[in-house]
């Protein structure tokens, strides 16, 4: 398995943050299926203030590019992503259109 860690910010609005968390307590089945079908075996999202941190553990053949291509063809995933963008905002250093940013590991014990 390969592990990836990613970061993203939420809009700094307590009501929007509460809505975002509520959506993630009831993730649509089609979204869960698309995640598993892409080879992601474990995913967790943590929050501090309005900063999100995601940990993904994937099968060896997982590809962000392949996942993005599959998501682009999936109307339900596109609907979910559009809904989530209501709550999300890019990190200050994100490129245009970039959402979740891959983090670099700097220490391991």
UniProtKB/TrEMBL annotation:
Domain of life from the UniProt record: Bacteria
Q: Which InterPro entries match?
A: Carb_Metab_Mutarotase (IPR052996), Dimeric_a/b-barrel (IPR011008), Rham/fucose_mutarotase (IPR008000)
**An example molecular function term from Gene Ontology annotations:** racemase and epimerase activity, acting on carbohydrates and derivatives
- Signal peptide start and end residues: none
What name does the UniProt record give this protein? L-fucose mutarotase
- Source species, please? Niabella ginsenosidivorans
